[in-house]
């Protein structure tokens, strides 16, 4: 999953340089870094269903091979429109999340799902790797060096997974699309989707837009901003297994209680520290840690909502998380172009965290498992 996430995040670390090269506005730059998130989000649901039906090894290998063509063609783009199309197609790399999580969850019992899926989530480190490496490669070799290098990495990963990964026997009776869609009837599916919209969406939004913020607010060079973003991603990713482990031990609702309070506090800290790098950095670190803990806690419950339909639930929740990463960069770009400041965007983040806090704790108990009638349908 790490190699796929490197591709998914490839435009973000060099967005500032591409803005200068193509003469983009702040909004156009925001749309460029958000475009991969859009396709990578909406396609997570069908990719999760495909994984339930055809197996993770086949689906993941096919996904990786699909990515090679747009990677090879991107160095030839000559306009913003073709650059945006490339970013959109490479967004398919983000669907590796639902494929990987569905594949991994089938190998372990429910009592270990939190920790195991948290460890699988370390594939998010691909975002940190691209944040650090892509600006360095771009500075030396330009777009060809970045995208041809990633194409080679993806081909190697596809070969290793195709001939090195195992596969559990598939069910004799294939699930129909209608059976998979039944997970949409469950309140827990939508509640977890909302929470993941905040936690994973926040993680993605910060990962793709933090280089832009650091360059504009504090004058950081692209390489330095990429390194700082890599640190944010690493902190959020490495703490994710702890979120899953704590959810296994004390319950996801208790973990999320602290997570939502922390996100609200971090957002307010960021809103009022746009000219103080040290306070801004502290706010980013706090937000990253809370995002990571929340991601692990939410996904501990995903395989338990509808056993036998893990791919469908993973796709819905994962799609919500991805969409949560699509809108904030665009909103921030609009706020910057219209009002000259990013502060209202962080205030909105704090308000949304408070809404999730209320939903989590105001007597709305989340079911750890929905009725098993889905499996028998």
From TrEMBL:
* Domain Major facilitator superfamily (MFS) profile per the UniProt entry, residue ranges: 1-368
Membrane topology, record value = Multi-pass membrane protein
Q: Which Gene3D superfamilies does the annotation name?
A: MFS general substrate transporter like domains
Q: Which SUPFAM superfamilies match?
A: MFS general substrate transporter (SSF103473)
Residues that span the membrane, as ranges:
26-47, 59-77, 83-103, 115-134, 146-165, 190-211, 217-243, 255-273, 279-299, 311-335, 341-359
Major location (coarse): membrane
* GO terms, molecular function: nitrate transmembrane transporter activity
- Name of the protein described by the UniProt record: Nitrate/nitrite extrusion protein
Name the keywords, alphabetized: Membrane, Nitrate assimilation, Transmembrane, Transmembrane helix, Transport
PROSITE patterns membership = MFS (PS50850)
Q: Which GO terms describe its biological process?
A: nitrate assimilation
Similarity-based family: Belongs to the major facilitator superfamily. Nitrate/nitrite porter (TC 2.A.1.8) family.
- What InterPro entries does the record point to? MFS, MFS_dom, MFS_trans_sf, NO3_transporter
Record's subcellular location: Cell membrane
> What is the phylogenetic placement of the source species in the record?
Bacteria, Bacillati, Bacillota, Bacilli, Bacillales
Q: One Pfam family name from the record?
A: MFS_1
> What organism, scientifically named, is this protein from?
Paenibacillus mucilaginosus (strain KNP414)
Q: What are the annotated GO cellular component locations?
A: plasma membrane
């Amino acid at each position: 999953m790490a190699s796929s996430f490197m591709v998914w995040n490839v435009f973000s670390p060099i967005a500032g340089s591409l803005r200068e090269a193509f003469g983009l506005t702040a909004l156009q730059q925001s749309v460029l870094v958000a475009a991969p998130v859009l396709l990578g989000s909406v396609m997570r649901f069908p990719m999760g269903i495909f994984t339930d039906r055809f197996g993770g090894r086949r689906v993941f290998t096919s996904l990786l091979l699909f990515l090679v063509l747009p990677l090879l063609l991107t160095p030839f783009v000559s306009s913003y429109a073709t650059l945006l199309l490339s970013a959109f197609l490479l967004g398919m790399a983000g669907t590796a999340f639902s494929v990987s999580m569905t594949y991994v969850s089938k190998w372990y019992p429910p009592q270990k799902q939190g920790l195991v899926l948290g460890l699988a989530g370390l594939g998010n480190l691909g975002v940190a790797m691209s944040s650090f490496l892509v600006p360095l490669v771009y500075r030396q070799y330009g777009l060809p060096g970045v995208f041809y290098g990633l194409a080679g990495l993806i081909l190697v990963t596809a070969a290793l997974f195709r001939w090195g990964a195992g596969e559990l026997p598939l069910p004799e009776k294939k699930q129909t699309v209608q059976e998979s869609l039944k997970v949409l009837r469950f309140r827990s599916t939508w509640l977890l989707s909302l929470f993941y919209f905040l936690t994973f969406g926040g993680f993605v939004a910060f990962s793709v837009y933090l280089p832009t913020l650091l360059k504009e607010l504090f004058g950081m060079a692209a390489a330095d901003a990429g390194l700082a973003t890599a640190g944010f991603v690493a902190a959020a990713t490495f703490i994710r297994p702890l979120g899953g482990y704590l959810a296994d031990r004390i319950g996801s609702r208790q973990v999320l209680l602290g997570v939502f309070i922390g996100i609200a506090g971090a957002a307010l800290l960021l809103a009022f520290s746009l000219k103080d790098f040290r306070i801004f950095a502290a706010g980013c670190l706090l937000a990253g840690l809370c995002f990571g803990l929340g991601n692990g806690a939410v996904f501990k419950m995903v395989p338990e909502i509808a056993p036998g339909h893990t791919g469908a639930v993973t796709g819905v929740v994962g799609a919500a998380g991805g969409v949560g990463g699509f809108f904030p960069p665009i909103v921030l770009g609009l706020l910057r172009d219209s009002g000259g400041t990013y502060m209202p965007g962080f205030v909105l983040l704090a308000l949304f965290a408070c809404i999730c806090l209320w939903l989590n704790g105001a007597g709305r108990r989340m079911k750890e498992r929905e009725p098993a009638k889905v499996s028998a349908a």
